[in-house]
UniProtKB/TrEMBL annotation:
Name of this chain's protein: Probable quinone oxidoreductase
Species for this entry: Crotalaria pallida
GO cellular component, one term: cytosol
Domain Enoyl reductase (ER), residue spans: 66-377
Entry superkingdom: Eukaryota
Keywords, ordered alphabetically: NADP, Oxidoreductase
GO molecular function: mRNA 3'-UTR AU-rich region binding; NADPH binding; quinone reductase (NADPH) activity
InterPro entries in the cross-refs: ADH-like_C, ADH-like_N, ER, GroES-like_sf, NAD(P)-bd_dom_sf, QOR-like
First and last residue of the signal peptide: none
Pfam families attached to this UniProt entry: ADH_N, ADH_zinc_N
């Protein structure tokens, strides 16, 4: 399917035309959402059956760390799921900045070669012996560990997958599992945003940034967003940013100071890192929260404790993985995310799709700041 036709399908999804509400939605419970089970031509045999031929699938592999060119499209062998595991045929794979960190070696992959990717939606094609609760044909999503979603099929622990409600388009779900659960824990748990707060979101038109702005607005906060150009500024405005700063042209600290009449903001969500960290601290009000959750521009320099003392600031460097440790935490985060999408509070922007085989091009564009919203790879 061509890129254009994929885009058209996504943007004609009725979910996307719903308006962003400025009030907190009534959330349905996760268990009340109808799920998808695909009655199809998939194998229904459990993995305990014997298979003579090794099963091969296409996947992106990294044999050496480096630039986007190290992402190679190869045949890899995939086994049968063991006890507690499922095999999933991916329909759509979310691209995340963390994939760039692993490719470059900023974060260390467990081994070389490895298949990158930490987010996907697909159909269960086999279940491990003795597994209950998951069936062949289920549409499931996952985000986080284990790495390896840049593949036509992958094996996953059943405890890491969640069912995708039938109200959510699979491509939307794949684009938003990791980014959306990140927005959920950042706004609802790490620092609890409330009506009347003023929040600063860097890279406001990015995958996570777009969701933070919409959700922050819906929670009743005044949202200040930074972006690198006018096109991204227009998107951030649509996403509910009350004030937009083009930080490549203006000094964002001065602008935040003016917008808040010198008071500063309750919280900064800073995923840019090196280029913004120091300025972000300067934007905070007394007892404000510095939430440093990424480093798209590079790792921030070490912070002396004294830089927090002047305003009694809080500093945290959170990761989604530590906020979805238990199965209950995972189901709660995914459930709140899916219901927030279904109710129209979040308008998920899948602005770019690439064939999975062209993951290198997708990485190149993400790193060059050419993308906005979510990027999805289609196997
Ligand atoms: N801690 C966690 O659990 C967690 C989870 C998910 C994501 N994250 C982090 O959240 C951030 C956003 O992830 P994402 O996947 O949604 O990516 P993204 O925001 O769509 O892309 C990164 C954006 O950062 C901005 N940026 C600023 N300086 C940059 C530079 N030197 N190089 C590249 N980009 C730069 C760009 O926006 P402008 O052009 O507008 O500047 C760019 O579009 C990443 O840092 C990621 O590591 C953290």
């Amino acid at each position: 399917m061509s890129l254009i036709s994929i885009r058209l399908i996504r943007f004609h999804n009725p979910l996307l035309s719903l308006l962003i509400s400025s009030t907190q939605p009534k959330l349905k419970t996760f268990s009340s959402i109808p799920l998808i089970r695909v009655a199809a031509t998939l194998t229904t045999k459990a993995s305990s059956s014997l298979s003579a031929e090794p099963k091969m699938v296409k996947a992106i592999r990294v044999h050496e760390l480096g630039g986007p060119q190290v992402l190679k499209w190869e045949d890899v062998e995939i086994g049968e799921p063991k006890e507690g595991e499922v095999r999933v045929r991916n329909k759509a794979i979310g691209l995340n900045f963390i994939d760039v960190y692993f490719r470059k070696g900023v974060y260390k992959a467990p081994s070389l070669p490895f298949t990158p990717g930490m987010e996907a939606v697909g159909i269960v094609t086999a279940v491990g012996a003795g597994l209950t609760g998951r069936q062949v044909g289920d549409l499931v999503a996952y985000a986080g560990q284990p790495m390896g979603s840049y593949a036509e099929e992958q094996i996953l622990p059943a405890s890491k997958v969640v069912p995708v409600p039938s109200s959510i388009d699979p491509v939307i779900a794949a684009s938003v599992m990791l980014k959306g659960m990140t927005a959920q824990f950042l706004l609802r748990r790490c620092f609890k945003v409330e009506r009347g707060h003023t929040i600063l979101v860097h890279a406001a038109a990015g995958g996570v940034g777009s969701l933070l702005c919409q959700w922050g607005n819906a929670l009743g906060a005044t949202v200040i967003g930074t972006v690198s150009n006018k096109e991204k500024a227009a998107q951030a405005k649509e996403d509910g940013c009350h004030h937009i700063i083009i930080y490549t042209e203006e000094d964002f600290v001065t602008s935040v100071n003016e917008i808040t009449s010198g008071n500063g903001v309750e919280v900064v969500y800073d995923s840019v890192g090196k280029d913004t960290f120091e300025g972000s601290l300067a934007c905070l009000k007394v007892r404000g929260y510095m939430v440093s959750f990424g480093q798209s521009s590079g790792s921030p320099d070490p912070v002396p404790l004294s830089s927090l003392a002047a305003k009694s600031l809080f500093l945290t460097r959170p990761s989604l993985m530590q906020y979805v440790v238990t199965r209950d935490e995972l189901l709660e985060a995914a459930g709140e995310l899916f219901t927030t999408i279904a109710s129209g509070v979040l308008k998920v922007r899948v602005n770019h799709t690439y064939p999975l085989s062209e993951a290198a091009k997708a990485h190149e564009d993400l790193e060059a700041r050419k993308t906005s919203g979510s990027v999805v790879l289609i196997p």
